Amino acid sequence: MAIHLSGAYPLRALDRLIRDLAPLISLDHPTRVRVDLSRLVAVGPAALAVLTAVLARGRARGLYAPGSVLVMPSSRAVSNYLRRMDLLRQVLPETTHDEPFVRREAVGFRPCRAFASAQECAVVARDLAEALSELVETDEAARASIRICLDELAENVIQHAASPLGGFAAAQGWRRTRELEIAIVDLGIGIRASLTKNPRYADIDGDVTAIATALEPRVTATPERNSGIGLFVTRLLLRDNGGVLLLRSGSGEVYSGAEDGARETPIRFPGTLVALRARTDRPLDIRAVYGRLDDADDHEDNRDSAG
Amino acid sequence: MMLTTTRTTVIRLAEELGSVLSGRFEAEELRARIEAELAAGAEVVVSFQGVVAMSPSFADELFAKVSEEAFERGRVRFVDLAEDLLAIARFVREGRGRPA
Prior knowledge:
Chain A is of the alpha/beta class. Chain A has helices at 14-25, 45-60, 76-84, 87-90, 118-135, 140-160, 191-195, 207-214, 230-241, 286-290, 293-306; strands at residues 2-9, 34-43, 69-71, 94-96, 113-115, 167-174, 179-186, 244-256, 261-279.
């Protein structure tokens, strides 16, 4: 089996990434696999987290037969980026190297991190928030907000995804565009299967509806344990900031930002991807969101009345 | 006549957990500690002095699940809360049908 990734995979290219990885995603028996990244030009945090999760799952399931190989990008910059992000530790038994890699501690970079417990969620959230603050200018409120969002999103994976591998998180900041992007990925049961465990949402039909519902306040698969406001608060935070929150699960994608949107995706993604993109030149302050929570209750009351 | 005294335990969150309170797991441990103190007959004061922000799950675990009886009788008190922290505390309590 040959997988080729070529060109750039920013957040908006998720369809192409998932299509290109589809044979690997559906792989269910040991096979000699060749993953060719030689023509890869750029990869964003969301694509990196998806790629790492898919490769790690194959490895955990023993699906890579002897002779499987990962061909690293021809571009030295991209190759070094992937190595810095610790992709190599997650993946195939053999990897082609054009030249030795000398590890350096680079400011703003942290590996694409795996997490499988609540304690690891907290460590990953703190670590990635610190990494971003090294790379882009953020104030105290923004750093706190980023850490809280990361922690909430990562805990969702642990508590709802039912994924033996847990989740994968990656983050990157860009000084020039004054943006940061965070992605959390799992290959678990997906939002719809999780949410319909709660009898209140058992009739939800379709992945888009399930995702949109999960973004509403106090919606959770496990009301006895969770409050169901982590995603909702993250959504308000990003909206205030001028950023974007994107959720992809199963055959659905919902994004929330200056404009909201939803669509059925052309190819199914097994699990859940949550990506947030924020501006660092505008306030990113979860405390301001909390100050408006009473409005959220009014909105909820109106919706219930309408229903 | 016999005099009885009540022990008061003060938990300073910023000193123990930092200025950002995040993570349900940490909050679960904190709640267990509060409830152990209450069970031992102590009163508990939880100070938010120096706390910059708190996650929804931390707030839910702490404000919406701690013993309501102890809360109502003043045996556990949350002090030094900024307005935004009060707002998230109210929100999670209302979500679980508790008085704000």
